[in-house]
Amino acid sequence: MENMSSLQKRIKTVQELHSIVKTMKALAAVNMHQYEEVIFAINDYNHTLALGMQALLKNTQMFFETPSVKSNKVAAVVFGSDQGMCGQFNDIIVNYTIANLQEQEKIFLVVGSRAAANLTDRKCPPSHIIPLPSVISGITLTVQDILITIEQWFLNREISKVLLFYNSPIPGTNRYTTKHLQVLPFPNDRFHGLQQKKWNSRTWPTFSLPANELFSALIRQYMFATIYRALVESLISENASRLIAMQRAEKNIDEYLHQLNSKYHQQRQTMINEELLDLVAGYTASINKPL
């Protein structure tokens, strides 16, 4: 039987672990809130881009031209995690990616070392790995790295299509779902309806750039905003998965701590009872001893 000293040490260790889990749960919740604020900002930015495209397309018909390529290879940009303790977050997105690309020739760009390791274990080693940003201000640099890699692949005619694979949060819950989105070739029907949409002002804005240059600049910004949003949604989902994992861990620790405390109190009560019985036995023996 485990002695009381050993039990006290175990209880102290479990209590420290409980404190760590609570801290990680709080950090995950804070991170989720911060990234959700970023989503609101991206929505505003996309609205501004849509207004710019609407103004451009009002009297101009533009099309996104895709360069001819010899390869049918698909570039899959997979968003995972660098850190653990987030449940099946990486397994889910990797399984989803492979299931959607089974019959296609593919090349992988992975954001997050754990998702990259998961793909390597599935015999789908990534061609390029980019670490996740540790702070919100680093998201822009990460997106720029992704765009540079994609552009290089496209210019070298190594790929014909670019797809994003990521976990996306379900609004109003701590759950998430898998998504994929095509960013190249840019779909020409993306802006259908903008020409007929009512402008919320009496005057239309003017622009000094040539229409083709402005259209290209807006398309680049749309791509940037799309990848940026996918990365942020993945980060929200990662922290949601970690929050759920920490909630489960906290529940298990609470139950285990309750068991340890019950066992400790039981042993302590047993020891007290034994001491009381020894006192009673000693007292009984002393009063029955002949003078």
UniProtKB/TrEMBL annotation:
Presence of keyword Acyltransferase: no
Database matches in Gene3D superfamilies: 3.40.1380.10, ATP synthase, gamma subunit, helix hairpin domain
Membrane topology listed for this record: Peripheral membrane protein
InterPro entries documented for this protein: Alt_ATP_synth_F1_gsu (IPR017709), ATP_synth_F1_ATPase_gsu (IPR035968), ATP_synth_F1_gsu (IPR000131)
MF-aspect GO terms: proton-transporting ATP synthase activity, rotational mechanism
GO CC list: proton-transporting ATP synthase complex
Function: Produces ATP from ADP in the presence of a proton gradient across the membrane. The gamma chain is believed to be important in regulating ATPase activity and the flow of protons through the CF(0) complex.
Protein name per its UniProtKB record: ATP synthase subunit gamma
Organism expressing this protein natively: Uabimicrobium amorphum
Lineage: Bacteria, Pseudomonadati, Planctomycetota, Candidatus Uabimicrobiia, Candidatus Uabimicrobiales
